[in-house]
Design a protein that fits this description.
heterodimer, A: about 280 residues, Rossmann fold, Alpha-Beta Plaits, 2 domains, 11 strands, elongated, B: alpha/beta, nine-stranded mixed sheet, 11 helices
Chain lengths: ~280, ~290
Amino acid sequence: MIIAVASGKGGTGKTTVAVNLALSNSNTQLSDCDVEEPNAHIFIKPKIKNKELISIPVPEVDKSKCDGCGRCQEVCAYNAIAVVNKKVLIFPELCHGCGSCGYFCPQHAIKEINKEIGSVEIGKRDNLLFVHGKLNIGEAMSPPLIKAVKKHVNPARVNIIDAPPGTSCPVITSIEGSDFCLLVTEPTPFGLNDLILAVEVLRKLDIPFGVVINRSDLGDKKTDDYCSQENIPVLMRIPFKREIASAYSKGISIVEAFPEYKKDFQELLDNISKMAKQNNRR
Amino acid sequence: MKQIVIISGKGGTGKTVITGAFAALAKNKVMADCDVDAADLHLLLKPQIKERHTFKSGATAFINKELCTQCGKCVEVCRFDAISKDFVIDSVSCEGCAFCSFACPVNAITMEENVSGEWFISDTRFGSMVHAKLGIAEENSGKLVSLVRQRAKKIAEDEKSDWIIIDGSPGIGCPVIASLGGVNCALVVTEPTLSGLHDADRVIKVAKHFGVPTKLVINKYDLNLEMTKNIEQYCQDNNIQLIGKIGFDKAVVEAMVEGKTIIEYTDGKAKREISEMWDRVEKDIH
């Protein structure tokens, strides 16, 4: 089973929910797909056992073979190749690695070289398996790295995916293929606005979902109203407590600081399993 | 004319609250909301839309079933697994590279331009604002950010504005990089947590990588005074100006619920601290 934790708005508590879910069950794997700003490791403190460098293919031109015909520029949809005075200029940061330029070069002058964009680290803490990706500073494109993290999803485990904020490509890449998605929100106008966007994403991807309301006693009631109007199950409420915020600030999970919450997260996981199964039968 | 972008690395640290407050405090300015995939600034500034434009970007492959001979060339060349064995394009996976359309021996594949979102020029009670809405599950947010910034710059030039105030997005990837280029200052908003500092450090490195001067503000600094101390030390060690500290103030959420900036809502602590910070921004950023 794969459970993604997403949000739309940043800072609502995705990592908190993902980490505490992962720590509440003995057969879980946590995959942190927020490769731009991975934080789950701060709370899990895993022992990292393996590290893989992740690269994307970008073109390199063999000047001795190139006759400057410009075919590569013509087929590149991303403006990553410019041919000026029969000389080929390549902008690797715009390249999506589709391979089209090399395939169509009549002189076979283009080969692909690997450009490192980040790394995937694999480790564990006790029974919990842990994977995360780290995008290199200055790199723009995270989806290939997110895909590399997701290759480690372990079918024998309950997989928790910590997704990045937003609604665009990195989020889609992270949550695609999940059996269920938890949307973590806070009951403020910003939280609700972005929750509505996230709900649209999940409906488009046809992934079943439910909501966790964090800092549930701040803000207003409109998030609850929205969820009941739209028939979206609110699966958990976490009140604002200075002690929870303080533990968070030091990198301590809720279930470690307040073991009485473990039961709530186990129940949340059970509910999700049931809902995901029902949906698979549908 | 000076440009300031408010970023954070980690989401939810208070970028939009501070951008909204700056919009109320700065005198002669244009606002640009560059968090195009989860925009929130409009909730505080309530823009009256004057111009609405579609944002076209990228393309998706379409297979003409009548021409297709099912030879399989397209499936073979596609690196994004976007074409199924029965020759159906998955529009979410398709990156619009057009490799398949060039490779198809019978020209059965065409590329159709995507409408990926909308962008707007609006009036607000604080001046002009350029903002956008990326379509659900769409790509090219960096391109849309660049477009919003270009338009804001044009308006600022026409209106002879002193400031462009840019609300950025979380993370360190494509939209953040697009929002950083050519600004006079990136103001990084963090919170006194390990995650906040970890993420601020990464985005500060990105700003440095692109040669953008950065300043830091600690929001809700009093929620963990020890972490606040660590962040102050971090600023000293890395030669970054700590331009403000804002205390936790429930009025921030109350103002948001009312659809107001904190400057309009109270005379409390957070308002005073943000106002003082703006004075320093005006003085220190050249």
